[in-house]
Amino acid sequence: MSLWRRVTARVWRFGLRLKFVLFQRHRHDAAVVENLGGLAIQVLPGVFNPAIFRVTPVFLEWLDEDLVPPSATVLDVGTGTGVLAIAAARTAARVTAVDRNPAAIECAQINARGNGVEDRVDLRLGDLFEPVAEERFDLVLCNPPYLEGDPDGDLEHALLAGDFPVRFARDLPDHLADGARALVILSDLGEQQRFLDAFDRAGLVTEAIRRRDLISEEVTLFAVYSPSSGSRSR
Known about the structure:
32% helix, alpha/beta, Rossmann fold, 7 helices, 7-stranded mixed β-sheet
């Protein structure tokens, strides 16, 4: 990363935190409706608003039938409002979505019903992979908390990475079916290298399959899979 990019990234990270404090915390206790990827998404009090940052809209733009095959069983880790699970359910056979925040599960249920996919989205309360025990999936989606810092409370758990990279990478292989992969979106403003290092230590392969330069940040979609599965990128 160039010096100009590093300086810009530092300023932008500060701006993101300021935006979070001034905007997200103010709206955290109020219900709002956002339009994301053509989906009407309600954001309930206590649930992180995915419209604040630009990563989720980019992920939604990329999340088409090429990445989510019609026969796929999908797991969405840290579903929040459920927007990624709902988008995946438009083509997938079945989507399981998990979140540690009870308010997020309630919010995702409302949004799945409102967008007509409640029959294809199974919502479960719990941290990371705990709610899916020994289940395996064809595709795992993750729009993780990626900013540096240790979270305190549900709101910050949606924003600050903490030990998320290590725990996610450690347990991911146990939930990938044969030939499966995870799609993880990361920004170079955050803990991208920590995630990549964690995947490497877990013996996983990472492959950048989509990239978008947003001037102030670069967003990359990584396919993550076990070496024995081989690359399934498109």
